[in-house]
Amino acid sequence: xxxxxxxxxxxxxxxxxxxxxxxxxxxxxxxxxxxxxxxxxxxxxxxxxxxxxxxxxxxxxxxxxxxxxxxxxxxxxxxxxxxxxxxxxxxxxxxxxxxxxxxxxxxxxxxxxxxxxxxxxxxxxxxxxxxxxxxxxxxxxxxxxxxxxxxxxxxxxxxxxxxxxxxxxxxxxxxxxxxxxxxxxxxxxxxxxxxxxxxxxxxxxxxxxxxxxxxxxxxxxxxxxxxxxxxxxxxxxxxxxxxxxxxxxxxxxxxxxxxxxxxxxxxxxxxxxxxxxxxxxxxxxxxxxxxxxxxxxxxxxxxxxxxxxxxxxxxxxxxxxxxxxxxxxxxxxxxxxxxxxxxxxxxxxxxxxxxxxxxxxxxxxxxxxxxxxxxxxxxxxxxxxxxxxxxxxxxxxxxxxxxxxxxxxxxxxxxxxxxxxxxxxxxxxxxxxxxxxxxxxxxxxxxxxxxxxxxxxxxxxxx
Length: 463
Known about the structure:
The protein is of the alpha/beta class. 32% of the residues lie in helices and 26% in strands.
């Protein structure tokens, strides 16, 4: 079975690369051992957002009196029904990927794929049958899984990972969430929103540690206001699961503290799926759990490529998709531009949402820029006030030398929908003047970007 391209993995990197390759006239096969769409679609991006929406709706109903709406009777959060809806959403999206592959005449081969020298892929099905495939080009897009710390081994019952957190059958009374990146913060928000007592533990001095410090501090205040116990500069020393509860020993600057919880959720990062897929036999170089690639995702072995979470770039679905497109366009003889990894938007979908792109203020200064910053709080936003949630801010970072936008950092409702303005602005080398003079609609959350830019230059009207 000969192909132009064989892709291992059907996540947002794999299936997007396959479709683009098919559009460019290539004969393509995708090898997938589990569900179509990969972790993102089935166990990450999509189902978590469905759960988060359920939590948000529950909070709206609980606080409906603030909007002039009176509801009779008790309102309950039915976790089982929320999980059922989440799984249905993921299932429908997976069917959508199946439709797209079929529409683009891409051959789907179910089974465990292993690369071999000579541009060969062996695929072993669940029944034990082995198929041998050949291609001119092979793309590895096998993604990643939850990382396990030595002292925080998951048993799937008391110490769990994100997959189990997506499918809990009963609502626990309490939970310790270890790690406050996007996964940890989103689950902390969701379970807190439906009434679970949450302790959020973060090793770094601030939660969502990759974000601008002012955004991190504001989110911490929001979480604390909603009842989440936030512990930064803290580590989980041990977890005793012998009794009915998890006895979690947490070490902070104040010393050791014992916290009891029904469940401990480990959200401490990811590990690349690069074991047992033939990298050593094929001679493909790896470093620090990642496959080494060039700017067009070529490995050190001709004809073999890697994209997505198995490579050193940010482990984000939209990054994997972009890498897949660049990779296949280069294979097809086009002249794609390498990805600018300093212009990748990051989003965390808790409430309030977090979104950012480009340099933080600290990173810009460390990079040698003379910076000018501007901020606009959502408490001064007419749309935020009307929507009933004034918790948030927009912060812009400019190069003081020429006014160019270096970074945009946002906290508040719907900011994950607004951040693309900053991505496009940075891609176009836009300046503060470009943003200030671009008329933004009123009332919207997006006009806070314009106001923040104006504030940087002493021109803010609504502050």
